[in-house]
Amino acid sequence: LSELAAQILDGDRRALARGITLVESTRDDHQAEADDLLTEVMARTGGATRVGISGAPGVGKSTLIEALGLHLIDTSHRVAVLAVDPSSPRGGGSILGDKTRMGELTRRAEAFVRPSPTAGTLGGVARRTREAMLLCEASGFDVVLIETVGVGQSEVAVEAMVDCFLLLVAPGGGDELQGIKRGIMELADLVVVNKSDGDLEAIAGTTAADYANALHLVRPKTTAWEPRVVRCSALEARGIDDVWHGVEAHHDALTGAGELERRRANQSREWMWSELSASMLDRLRHDPAASATAERLEAEVAAGKLPAPVAAEQVLRAFTDPGDRA
Amino acid sequence: LSELAAQILDGDRRALARGITLVESTRDDHQAEADDLLTEVMARTGGATRVGISGAPGVGKSTLIEALGLHLIDTSHRVAVLAVDPSSPRGGGSILGDKTRMGELTRRAEAFVRPSPTAGTLGGVARRTREAMLLCEASGFDVVLIETVGVGQSEVAVEAMVDCFLLLVAPGGGDELQGIKRGIMELADLVVVNKSDGDLEAIAGTTAADYANALHLVRPKTTAWEPRVVRCSALEARGIDDVWHGVEAHHDALTGAGELERRRANQSREWMWSELSASMLDRLRHDPAASATAERLEAEVAAGKLPAPVAAEQVLRAFTDPGDRA
Question: What integer is the mean pLDDT of B271-296?
Answer without folding.
Answer: 90
